[in-house]
Automatic annotation (TrEMBL):
It comes from the Eukaryota. It is an enzyme of class 7 (translocase). The keyword Ribonucleoprotein does not apply. It comes from Arachis hypogaea. The chain crosses the membrane at residues 265-284, 296-318, 339-357, 369-387, 530-549, 569-590. GO terms for cellular component: membrane. This is P-type Cu(+) transporter. It is found in: Membrane. Keywords: ATP-binding, Copper, Membrane, Metal-binding, Nucleotide-binding, Repeat, Transmembrane, Transmembrane helix, Transport.
Amino acid sequence: MEANSDLKIPLLQTSPEDAAVRTVMFQIGDIKCASCINSVESSIKDLHGVNSIMVSPLDGRAIIKYSPKFITAKNIKEAIEDSGFGVDELQEQEISVCRVRIKGMACTSCSESVENALRMIDGVKKATVGLALEEAKVYFDPNLADANKIIEAIEDAGFGAELISSANDVNKVHLKLEGVDSLEDVNIVMSSLEFAAGVNHVEFNLTEHIVTVNYEPDITGPRSLIHFIQTASSGTKMYQASLHTTSGKRERDKVDEIHRYRDQFLFSCLFSVPVFVFAMVLPMLPPYGNWLNYKIHHMLTLGLFLRWILSTPVQFIVGKRFYVGSYHALRRRSANMDVLVALGTNAAYFYSVYILIKALTSDTFQGQDFFETSSMLISFILLGKYLENLAKGKTSDALGKLTQLVPDKAYLVDMDADENVISETEIDTQLIQKSDILKIVPGAKIPIDGVVIKGQSYVNESMITGEAKPVDKSPGDKVIGGTINENGCLLIKATHVGSDTALSQIVQLVETAQLAKAPVQKLADHISRVFVPLVVVAAFLTWMGWFVPGEVGLYPRHWIPKAMNAFELALQFAISVLVVACPCALGLATPTAVMVASGMGASQGVLIKGGDALEKAHKVMKLFILVTRYLFNCALAGKLSFHLQQGFKIKP
């Protein structure tokens, strides 16, 4: 294998006047399968002046880039209609989409608060928040809103936000620079990129030495951009560039979040376990617990003082996140799990502080504190959050396996005019550009969608199409990225790269399905919306239901434990109601089930478009039973008819 020194020279050169392109979006009806998409693309891509076309399998939208010098949007629309598909809508590209990762959502109330905050932004057309996926997908008018406004709105609502991708990220690349040490070097690199054909926008991060380039994929690509940067070198000053990817960042963030909850839980246990031992264990083991009854001042005992000292860090340091979450929730005029936890723990803690003050100032007062209740409650909730995040971190593993179908490396070949291979070089898959010629050896995975130009082989497409039998491929046949070349050597020409490949669209389909809400989730959301206020009312009624009868003597006095009065007994029951009532499981059950089902289905070759399809799936078994019963009755009726025709006697 020879090294190709001209590896990074652009393969597709276009004159600057051809770089001016426009984008139009059509709403195409009757898009039902991949064959429909291929029909639309085939009828459009051969038109003179059309640069690219991408049809979404989700909503039938076609985004077409064309040169107005050679063709108009009306001509394109007529071509689609001539191919047998209806064009329901014609509009210029005015809607942008961005995905944002949201941190700090605990229940359905949180996700609804984020959705409401996003919908209030001027220019936002639609916002969908996935609780289990911890993401938001926002459709907005780029003339009125942008990603920064969206992130600010989420942060103002009390949640962390981080941009995952925007509409322009499809044709955006991040390059890590070396040799750029001064402002003059930055200006040289920026100028070399800005004047390159096909480059729309350039941004430079001085801190991390990363340049972000937005480009036209039909004109240039990552490999060409690296070449432009290297050719800007002069004399002894050499500039080098390499791809900078953020792959795996989400997984690292999830691991960090799991470790953070684990550390908080262990730190909480460091204080809450001794409080529990001092309050519940040692007093039951005389004489080992007698030292806890030592009176420091008046009726303030050493055990009560130690419980107060140890529970305070748990309440205000470890439990700070519940105070912050409650503040933001109440500021939004809503209530979530943090409000319940804050109410329950504060009621237990501050009542215990009241008991401590009374014991410190009185010679005869005796009361029961609840310091162990508040500290242990926070510890158990942190344990639940740790286990919850541990489980949620595993739900996206199946989706990660889909992206691993694409190989990391590919063989780029250089051919002469007679279509003879001059050289071949191993490159990163992300450096592949449109119209590149790639060599696929037997047993290798195909990195992108393309067309066979030379060679013959059988390709295993079962992981994409479900076809168990390998498909024969010869010149002119299409190949799909992620499939496996069985026995022959193929030369393919790249036609779809990056997010335009079939595998990328499958991943987008699964992610969209995980964000979509199932119809049954609407009921859960409605219940969760009023759940916390109802719990607070129920806790107050519980306290009243035990306190008032206790004061008037409606139940026996011996029901109340020693060193406790009716108020304290009623308070225990009220706190218990606040503690056990948590809407997290109710709000997380449906989105987590949809997320796991869609991810596992995708790994098995089954694409699920959302919770609606899953909710209707149970009817398939009912339909199967009805059809089977109908066929059985038909067969039985036919058998009876046969016996009657033969004159046989039928036994009942």
